[in-house]
Amino acid sequence: MTNIALIGAGSMAKNYINTLDHFPNARISIVLAKTKNNLSKLPGKFIKTTKIEDVLIQKNIDAVIISSPASTHFKFISLFQKMGIRILVEKPFVTSLNEVKKIKKIKPKSNILIAHTLLFHPAYQLIKKLVKNEKILNLKFEGYNNNPRKDTTLLWDWGPHPISLFLDLYNKMPKSANLENKSKNEISISLDFGNNLKSSFRIGWNSPKKIRKLEVSTNKNIYIFDDLKYPNLEINSLSGFNISYPKVETTPPLNNLISYFLRSGRYNTSNFDFGVKVTKILEACNKSIKNRTTKL
């Protein structure tokens, strides 16, 4: 049995609680939140506390899920690193590259998994398999909602989604980040991966309809992965212009993420090193908002 400490009591914390109900080999032992009022809204039988000391004195904690505001991630990661337990942290991993450097000093080889949930979506994983024998030419991502966050910026809220996908598909760092367009609640940025490998994303907090869509263009097909639509994967063939909708597994991506988290050993996907790269790109994108172009 894997005993888990959960940090946070927001909507994602509730999702983790509900999802872990489907894992008989794991359970949440204790939940830490800022206020007792927040804790009272959580379902489940576990210790509820507003004091970090109550979590740290637990003798049977094997892993921790950090689902608190982004500004607190560094503090909690630093604390639990010293305990030597597995850490799953919501995106954004941290809020600066400086925080990453401090984490690395505490424990260079940390067993950290970052919750880039779209990487664990069955439709995306199918795309990865299908494009192995094709040449990727262009990547596009759109992400919108009408839910501005107080604990982070638009870029650091939505940016990890496209950046983690692009990084995973191209398997290399971009050469530069370039601002394409910016308004109060919307940003458009392109990333230059070199060798004519194109990518761009548009994200915003100004849409009444939530959108989370990835388009992968190759020399043979255009794959459209729409996380909030059914069917969520469409393939447009460039030879004959046929459109198909392949069968995709229905396992929720959060279930896949937790299943991966509960495995023993080091993580190969969305791990600490991957989180460092995503953070570097986010910082470059942030600078490009002021300077239009920033080299990595």
TrEMBL record:
Domain Gfo/Idh/MocA-like oxidoreductase N-terminal span(s) in chain numbering: 3-110
SUPFAM superfamilies, per the entry: Glyceraldehyde-3-phosphate dehydrogenase-like, C-terminal domain (SSF55347), NAD(P)-binding Rossmann-fold domains (SSF51735)
Molecular function GO labels: nucleotide binding
InterPro entries: Gfo/Idh/MocA-like_OxRdtase_N, Gfo/Idh/MocA_Oxidoreductases, NAD(P)-bd_dom_sf
Name under which the protein is recorded: Gfo/Idh/MocA-like oxidoreductase N-terminal domain-containing protein
Phylogenetic classification of the source organism: Bacteria, Candidatus Daviesiibacteriota
